[in-house]
Amino acid sequence: MKARIVTLPGDGVGPEVTAAAVAVLQAVAAHFDHEFAFEEHLIGGCAIDATGSPLPDASLKACQQADAVLLGAVGGPKWSDPQAPVRPEQGLLALRAALGVYANLRPLNVHPALAALSPLKEDKLRHVDVLFVRELTGGAYFGAKTRTPDTATDECKYTVAEVERVTRRAFELARERRRHVTSVDKANVLETSRLWRSTVQRIAAEYPDVKLEHQLVDSMAMLLLTQPGYYDVVVTENLFGDILTDEAAAIAGSLGLLPSASLGEGSRGLYEPIHGSAPDIAGKGVANPTGAILSAAMLLRHSLGLEDEAAHVEAAVAQVLEHGPHTRDIGGHAGTTDIRHAVIAALDEHVANA
Ligand code: NAD
Ligand code: IPM
Ligand code: MN
């Protein structure tokens, strides 16, 4: 098949991990006779430096015309002055909104070979397989903001329609898994959470074959550590999902491991590792590209419908996690390009043996 993929490497380690993911996609294209056309564009701090805007028109237009978008990370100390009139992160939020990708899928799996790196004891890590479905285009991220010298506000707003669509997506995904949805909110305090909970409750009636539970976000932060193996699909609003998934990444062993897919109504999607630009290690060639490579696998699955190819990439990544090499964040000494070469070699082997 032919596909147009826009890459947005962004800032910090973004270009390093994106290059690894692109190389893996190129290897997939060669093995399976696909034609992937890659087009690179600016986003974030590097886009501000070059054009004044964190999401230049040319970048947005290219994304809107692509089959899929692969993003690295945005942001960094250079653009983090609280007084700055424009910020890299605004470009990412504007892109998510413009593409209408309201459902952010963030899978958490714990590879047994990395169990010793998890802050949790090994017995807690058995059977951990959670799919977070984070609402991505609403809530406090997108509400009105005000600022005076001594007051600031961030409006947190949700409409019923916004909650309905992400809830349906979560229940549909649960039907392909263990049919268990946990909805996370703060309904004991927040009005948006009460609207969230009653809407989720009503939509759940359309899915009588799926079990629904509600959990308050503070206790969920605790339960994720005490019984991570209990959860299947976890659906939650934008800010709670951001925070809980960094916690989830720690359970897996490193923030560098987790991928994500951001989806809307069509097949076009935005794919990015959940980590940021990692300024402390940027430019050193040591960033873990696993989250980015697994995001590329999600791209193959969700935007291009290439399930077999996605599974081959995931198997290759699992093999490298099992046998090494490993980057520093997961206890090894390898660099980003070592992992890229190892994953491609494992992919070659898997495809040859398939
Ligand atoms: P971060 O995710 O960039 O880094 C947190 C810690 O995890 C750091 O110690 C870093 O070295 C480590 N880490 C992250 N990714 C890694 C990888 N692939 N391999 C090995 N180690 C990795 O979070 P931060 O430092 O709080 O944020 C830095 C900047 O990134 C901020 O400007 C923030 O807004 C931005 N950010 C962007 C995205 C995105 O583009 N999607 C996501 C999160 C944060
Ligand atoms: C993420 C990041 C972003 C978010 C920032 C950079 C806007 O933390 O993708 O998890 O909060 O959504
Ligand atoms: Mn985040």
Describe this structure in words.
By secondary structure, this protein is α/β, with parallel strands linked by helices. The protein folds into 2 domains: 202 residues, Isopropylmalate Dehydrogenase; 134 residues, Isopropylmalate Dehydrogenase (3-Layer(aba) Sandwich). 44% of the residues lie in helices and 18% in strands. It has a 10-stranded mixed β-sheet, with helices on both faces. It has a two-stranded antiparallel sheet with strand order 6-7. A hairpin with a 5-residue loop joins β11 and β12. The longest helix has 19 residues. The chain is globular, with a radius of gyration of 20 Å. The mean pLDDT is 98.
Q: Write down the CATH topology of the largest domain.
A: Isopropylmalate Dehydrogenase
Question: How much strand content do the residues show?
Answer: 15-25%
For the biggest sheet, the summary is: 10 strands, mixed
- Annotated CATH architecture of the largest domain: 3-Layer(aba) Sandwich
Number of helices: 12
Q: Which structural category fits the helices and strands?
A: alpha/beta
Count of β-strands: 12
The H/E string reads EHEHHEHEHEEEHEHEHEHEEHHH
The hetero molecules present are: nicotinamide-adenine-dinucleotide, 3-isopropylmalic acid, manganese (II) ion
Q: Outline the low-pLDDT stretches.
A: none
Fourth-level CATH superfamily of the largest domain:
Isopropylmalate Dehydrogenase
Amount of helix: 40-55%
Strands side by side in the biggest sheet: 2-1-3-12-11-4-5-10-8-9
**What's the alpha carbon Rg, rounded to whole Å?**
20 Å
Principal-axis shape: globular
End-to-end distance: 20 Å
- Count up the domains: 2
Q: What's the pLDDT, averaged over the residues?
A: 98
**Any idea of the CATH class of the largest domain?**
Alpha Beta
